[in-house]
Input
Amino acid sequence: MLDSLDAAAVRRWCAAGLDALRRHQREIDELNVFPVPDGDTGTNLVLTVASAHEALAAEPDGADGGVDGPAGTGAANPGEMTRLGRVLGCMARGALLGARGNSGVIMSQLLRGLADALAAAPHARGRAVAAALGGAATAAYAAVADPVEGTLLSVARGAADGAARADSDELAAVVSAAAAGAAAALALTPSQLPALARAGVVDAGGRGLVVLLEALVEVVTGVAVATAPLAAMARDPRLLEVTREAGSAGYAYEVQYLLDAAVDRVDRLRTVLAGLGDSLVIVGTGTPVGGADPTWNVHVHVNDVGAALEAGVEAGRPHRISVTRFADQPGPAPYPADPPAAAAVPDPDARGYVVVAPGQGLAALFAGEGAVVVGGTAPSTGELLAAVAATGARDVVLLPDDVNSHGVAALAAAQALGRGLRVGVVPTRSPVQALAALAVRDPGRRFEDDVLAMTEAAGACRYAAVAPASRAAQTAAGPCRPGDLLGLVDGEVHLIGADLAVLAGDLLDRLLAGGGELVTLLLGRDAPAGLGADLAGYLGRAWPGVEVALYDAGQPVYPLLVGIE
Output
């Protein structure tokens, strides 16, 4: 049994946590209630922690650096990072660079909070670990303007409260209490979040944190935790519903920018933006060397774009401004590809474009447009950074093409800033929006103006998709069963059918009833032969005068993606 947490114990915890998440990956994935498997939480957490483990493996034992304090004192000099601090920092940075989806981003922030709290500790006994867990949970809550209870945040707070209640310097007692507190908080999530209650499940991200904390208990005590069955996992298909993280429908625009500003000014900005809209998140990206103001990543949904930008100007220096209109918006899916090679020195006069492409045909199409392509729709922060560097440009426009990757793209943009690169994120939610955005790009414009024009073009492109249901659910269009075909508009199920061509025709009719001159059809890997010709012929008969652009894109999961301009 360990008396204190040190660098070696953190390494063992990371390895054990990764193994445990892999064992529970399918269970956690199945806690997701959306019937199309795009960005499942268990998979995202495994990939995030696997990146942390790889980062630690690249730093062999004895190469952690840092200090453990003068011989015999057990204390480090103030401000010096110890071996424990360095290995926790390495783990957190690996998780940050490999973060996938919202759950991975939040998990990486929790690890960052632990690393910051214990940076100068030669080792950590119970009370120090409890305090670090409290600081990590507080930092995660502070990053979200309107934290939603019943999520990973609630479970993190439950872990911190449990550790604090232990009121002990015995490490085993504290980590055991933290895991128990997290499990108790997880059991409460269905009563805190109505969508979970109706679905009959606990929060998937919270379940992942419980698994990770139980792995820590095993490392400290040498005894595996006997996890109780999840009573809330009983699944009545009549209760399941579609749910995704989103703000209210009362706001028409998403505004994002980086802001160089002092902490006190950001506190005031948070109050102003909270009064303008919802989905407010302000995350600090670290204090730069030389005493300059910290840089913050600001995200909010509003109706008054000008007021949101003016608030940023009053607080400090906003840059890399991105505005998108929620006129229309699902998301594609993954396909493996080798990460692009990095360029050496960025060209200050060049402009690069990076696109996430979920299919080899689509990747070839984007590459033909001069973009650097990242395969799949669940790329890591590190993969996006490598692609940004591979453009060879100092100014880069990044198109993530999936709402589940927006948080990862924002992290990559913040990391790139520290490397002297400017990255503007156009929050595309489908490859058809990326095509629309690239069609209006103009490297001759000012960088900020180019990003804004591309964002407006993407937002003006309505999009839809057809995908098979992977699980039973009660959707807005009625109940679906595994194997049913779903017609999605803006990421929500609008149609359910059995015949792909018929369902696609009905979906096109619904979209074109609102107007449109150009229809883009992206055929997926599993699209039947002749589907493209059949749909093009149908459009010619039912909607004469509409131009059709047809591509064999090869994306998985979605046999058809549709864009209307």
